[in-house]
Every structure is written in structure tokens, then in C-alpha cells.
Amino acid sequence: MTVPQSADDLASTALEHKLNGTTNGHANGTNGTKPSLPTLDASKLTVTLADPSARTVPDEVTACSGTETICTDHMITVSWSLSKGWSNPELKPYGPLTLMPTASVLHYATECFEGLKAFRGFDGKLRLFRPDCNARRMLMSTLRISLPGFDPVELEKLIIALMAVDGPKWLPKSRPGSFLYIRPAVIGTQPQLGVQAAKEALLFITASFMPRMDSPPGGMKLHTNPEDMVRAWVGGFGYAKVGANYGPSLLATQEARERGFGQILWLYGPEGYCTEAGASNFFIVWRRKEGQLQLITAPLDDKLILDGVTRRSVVELARERLAGELEVVERKYTIDEVLEADKEGRIVEAFAAGTAFFICPVSQIHHRGADVHIPMGKANVGGDYTSKIKSWISDIMYGNEQHPWGVVIEEKE
Amino acid sequence: MTVPQSADDLASTALEHKLNGTTNGHANGTNGTKPSLPTLDASKLTVTLADPSARTVPDEVTACSGTETICTDHMITVSWSLSKGWSNPELKPYGPLTLMPTASVLHYATECFEGLKAFRGFDGKLRLFRPDCNARRMLMSTLRISLPGFDPVELEKLIIALMAVDGPKWLPKSRPGSFLYIRPAVIGTQPQLGVQAAKEALLFITASFMPRMDSPPGGMKLHTNPEDMVRAWVGGFGYAKVGANYGPSLLATQEARERGFGQILWLYGPEGYCTEAGASNFFIVWRRKEGQLQLITAPLDDKLILDGVTRRSVVELARERLAGELEVVERKYTIDEVLEADKEGRIVEAFAAGTAFFICPVSQIHHRGADVHIPMGKANVGGDYTSKIKSWISDIMYGNEQHPWGVVIEEKE
């Protein structure tokens, strides 16, 4: 790596250099790994199968009712070290990880993850939704938290390999319309208490049940964050899917829930810019004072928010299929604009968008004593635009519409 | 817990309420734990000793030369769950932890820690330095990251119990002037991928070797952070010792090291306020334009920086013992003030202060092409004030001065 000589662009260029060095298929050269060391290589996957009769597949409601996440029969793990590069990936029975008490991840949050879903289509096929987007974002998050780089195409192949094995049993063809949640993660495992980039790491992928969260009765209710607590900031890491964005947000969320709200609407700065709804992106359909319909969401350019795959899909589909009906706008907008629009009766719909919550209609925003009530449509399950966008994406996920975003997995049966 | 009814002080009051509810010795009522459940109780410690002949104690240099942190024979673990409260603490042989791949800490950085040292005094006694400060801060960090509360006095007792067992062997009387590093931590262990406060947790305490970092040849060299990367922000969690403050800082630190600098001097805001030096607090001795000597460091009130135990001790001792000679000032000051003072020849000394780096003289600050070179004293090991303060604290740690901050541990021999 060439060290940039300009003194004032220390780390930002570091990240760019690392990203440029890892997306071309030669996945190392990051975190000090020598270019000659093994890279992440899905073709080297070794397979150790679990006894298929050892566990039966629970029904969805039972699976999601406990305090533990129920995973499928297998997981994939790949270890990395600065001196040896990436090991051969292993597909093996799901089970615990062993870490030394001094492991980097347990102290310094050297961790990042992704979330995507696998869908059993109504056409019987097994699909992922835009897994390339998740794999590329995972690389960015991994480098941001000083963990080792890899070729995202190889990660995508590993995700597909896990679902090819566990899909037939855990997303059976008898359950069209069901999904599993896939969680790739990279953690720093070096047993070393010095505050430094981890010289050992583990990439692992699990697949599990997850409750459906896209239709809470009465819609999602948002409470704005307290003035003295913000989620992310300019110059921070709000755009990366690193653990450090999540733990610190729990305190505000916990108390909002005690007050009957589902998520925090995170505002930013003295202006009160609307950024994210909980750990999802946030959209409003409103009418401008001049009468024009807009679908508005926070922009990506200041790196405060996650570049959500669902967000991106909403923006792209709305621009393509609602052109003429409404304008899609990515810009900063404030909670005061929202309150004003509400007062003037210009708010049409709102929804949160993300992998976990999918497209979840928002019915209320509470901000310092004021309440914005948002129409939920005739059937009370979300407004027309929310429902329309949701069904478009859903149709791609479950194979009602053949679309390049729906990646069919060839199953081992 | 009474839920505060004012809408705009959601989480800050939550933290205050939790802190008030846990420092009175009735340690629960936090994170939803029922008051009737068992609290953290050091008197219930169970002891399972390792074979003392299984491992020999390495010399300090060997112990610190590898890529792994060498821990002592034992560790203490205490598990917690929302339904059962705190389990009985266990002192047992040091060894790996087992976590499910879905454990909260591995994804959401539900983790916090402390760092303190045990010292083998020149009077033969084993001491801790102000462990009460660490235990109280650990409670604050634990609650900030939505992990379960406890009575900090019990944590202090557990730290003492571990050192009472491992101190005689690992800090032998034949090595006066040596120390071990003690690392208590709390992590969220619940195997659940939902973004929520963990309903299961583990508190663990290890003791290990750590390199001496207070005297790098030529002094510590600081590089200011890149403009687009900040460590902490107002409304964030820079004051808490949570993992989320560390991992994201590694990228900038890594690149600074490639340029020959030891740590980042973290500036804040467009004004460029000086906050922390790496993961240590930062002090400058300078002369005001009017000629008066000042020891200056960043203030605690905006919650950007850690309330360091070493920082606090420096401030208190300097106020007590250098009164009349210099004024101790905790206020915001900018990098431009530092550059100006340097240009006018008013910078006398500078040092980083923390448990890991102890009192470490700073010899250089690089900021956007400009270099501030700071006097290192006649012997090139730090200026007079730096050395004086360092020796005062060192004398308390190693028993050359009897002082309430040096807590003597009664050893099991």
C-alpha cells in the first residue's frame, strides 16, 4: 500500500485504498496481510454435515417465541491471521465458538456483520435478495473496523453454499412465503489486550429464524431520541454495519419501549435532521406546499446512515415505477419540516425500510411532547404507496416477479 | 423504576436513575432485573484452584514479546440473566469462554471493560491503585451499554480476591517494582440476533502481563486525527469505557503508526478542541502569554472524554503539591492555541496519562503539515513536572509513600 503523503487525509484515504485493493479479486493487502498469503476462497470449502435427523424444523411461530435465536443445522466459519491469511472455509454443524477472554472482539468491538434473507418462493424456488450488495457492504464495514479484507464475491458464494445445504430442510417447499435470516459476521479473535488492529479474525455465517416484524398492529411508533443522545455523527461510522453502532443505541430504545414506542427516530444536529428509524432507514411520503408528491429519505453523502439494501431498492423501484406520480428525494430534512407538514395535513404515509423490518408502516412520531399521527391506509396496514412498494419487492423476493435482484439458489437435495 | 414523564430527557435520566438505583448496595433494578433476584455478591465466591505447578511465571520481557496476552493461573467469572439475576462468582483456572455465534456481544458491541494494575511494592506489599474509581466507572459503562448493574464494592472485592490468589506467584516478592494488568469486563451473552438489550451477560476478570509503555524512546509522538474521522461526539459515549469507543479508532491509529507516530491526538469539532491522546488523557504544561505556568487538560463536562483514574490523580496531586508553582486547568483548548503557544515558545512539557501508558511524555504533535516539538527534559525522559508527577504516583503505587490511594491486598500464601 502506498502511504498517502498528504497529512490531513490520514484514515479516509486508508479506507479508500483498502477498498480499491480488495474489490479486484486480489483480496489481501489489507490489514498488513502479505499479497502472497491465501485469500478468502469459497472453492476451498470443506463440508462436514450434521446428522440430519438430530433436529426437526420447528414451525415459524414456535421458533421465534423464545429468547434464543434458532439457527439451522450448519454454519460456515473461516479463520484469518496476519501471518497465514485466510484458512479454508468450513461448512460444519452449528455450534458454539470458543474465544479467549482476552479476544479483541470482547473488549474493543472489532466486529461487523450483515443481515440478509433467504426466501422460499411461491414458485418453489429458493432465493436471496441482492446478496452482492450485502457482500460489498460487509467488506466496507470490515475494513472500517480494521479487520481483514476479502473479495466480496467469495463471501456471496459462501452464503449461497450454506443455503444450498440448509435451504431444502429449513425452508421446505411446503412453506412457500417463508424466509430465513442470514447473518455473516467478522470478529477480531486475537487474544491480546493491547488496543490495536486484531491480527487474528473469524468470519462466520449462520442462518436462523427471525420473527416477521413488518406489520406491528397499529404500525410502528417512533419516539425521537433524547437531546443528549445521538446515534451517529459526521466523521463517525454510522454508515458501516459495525457493532459499535448498535450497543450504544439500546439504552434510548429500551426506554422508548417502556413508553410504548417501537423504535427511536434518530435526529442529528441542532437542526434535528431525520436520519434512521431504529436500525432501519426511514421514508416519508408527503406533499410539498406546492402540491407535488414526494417520497423523501435521508441522503448518504454525509455518511451518517446505513446504505440499506432495502432503502436502495425502494429508491430505485419508486424512481422507475412511480415516475410522474411522485418525486423521489434523498436530502436532509428536519423534524420541524415533518411537524409543519403534519400541521398542514401534507403527510401522506411513512415507513421504515430494512432487512429485519422489511417495509414497516409508521403510524406515529413523538417529538418532545408533540405527536404526529400518520395515515395507515384503509386496511390499517400501511398507505397505498407503502403497500405498493412492499408488494413489488416482496414479489421479487418470493418469485412472483422474475427480476435480477432475486438470485435463485441451486439446492442440494 | 419510575419512568420519567418529561419527553425530552429520555435516556439521560434513564442512566441517572439506574446509577442511583445501583450505587446504594441494592444492585439490581436495572435492565429490568427484579429487585428480589440475587445481586452481585463477592462473599459467595466459589474457588477452584489450578494446579500451581502446571505453569511457571515467565520473565516480564518474554511474557510481553508475543502476540498473545499472557494471563495468570486464574480468572473470575459471574453470569447474569434477566430471570435469575447474578450467579455465584467463580474463581477458576484461566481458560477460554464459550459463546454461541449469535451472542449479543459479537454483533452489537454490548461490552465494556476496565483496566487497572496490581503492583508489587518495594516494601514487599501487593497493592491496587484506587480500585474504587475503576469499579464505579465500570458500573457507569455497564449501564450505558444496557448491561446489568451491580454494586461496585462487590466488583472491587472480586478484583482483590483474584489478586490475593494470583499475586504471590505472579507478582513475586523477588520482583519489586513489577505490575500486572487487571481487566474486568462485562459482555452480553444472550444468543439472540434481535437488536435489544441482552437478557444474559457475563462479568469476567483476568490478570495479565502488559508491556511497560510509559517510556518510549524519544517520547510519544502524536498525529492529529484526519478531518473526516472523530473519536467521540457530544451526545455520544466517549466518557464510557465501552468497546464501541475503541474498534472504530483503530483505522486512524494504524495509519498514524505506519507514518511513525504512536497515537492519534483526537480533536473535536470545527474548533479543533484537543481531547484524548490515543486511549489516554492528554496534558500540556504551558506558559500563558502573561507568563503564568498552567497544567491544562480537556474537561469532563461535555462527556467527550474518559474520566481517567490517572487523569484524576494527576489533577488532584498537582493541585495539592504544585499550588503556587502552576495552575491546574480543566477547560476546552484548541490545537490552534497549542500551535500558537509553540510558535511563541511557551510549551514547557506534555504527557499522556492512563492506566496502560501511565504517565508517558509526549515529544511531538503533528497537525496538518505542522510539527510541534515538545521539550523532553535534560535526561530526555520527560520534563521536570512530568517526571515529578510520575514519581509521586509511582511512589504511591509501589509503597514508597503510604497513601490512601494505594490499597494493600492481603495475600493468600
UniProtKB/TrEMBL annotation, chains A, B:
GO terms for molecular function: branched-chain-amino-acid transaminase activity. Residues 19-39 are annotated as: Disordered. It holds the Pfam family Aminotran_4. Gene3D superfamilies: 3.30.470.10, D-amino Acid Aminotransferase, subunit A, domain 2. Its cofactor is pyridoxal 5'-phosphate. Its EC number is 2.6.1.42. GO terms for biological process: L-leucine biosynthetic process; L-valine biosynthetic process. Residues 20-33 have a biased composition (Low complexity). InterPro entries: Aminotrans_IV, Aminotrans_IV_CS, Aminotransferase-like, B_amino_transII, BCAT-like_C, BCAT-like_N, BCAT_family. The modification N6-(pyridoxal phosphate)lysine is found at residue 241. Keywords: Amino-acid biosynthesis, Aminotransferase, Branched-chain amino acid biosynthesis, Pyridoxal phosphate, Transferase. CDD domains: BCAT_beta_family. It is an enzyme of class 2 (transferase). It catalyses: L-valine + 2-oxoglutarate = 3-methyl-2-oxobutanoate + L-glutamate; L-leucine + 2-oxoglutarate = 4-methyl-2-oxopentanoate + L-glutamate; L-isoleucine + 2-oxoglutarate = (S)-3-methyl-2-oxopentanoate + L-glutamate. The keyword Transferase applies. One of its GO terms (cellular component) is mitochondrion. Belongs to the class-IV pyridoxal-phosphate-dependent aminotransferase family. This is Branched-chain-amino-acid aminotransferase. It comes from Podospora fimiseda.
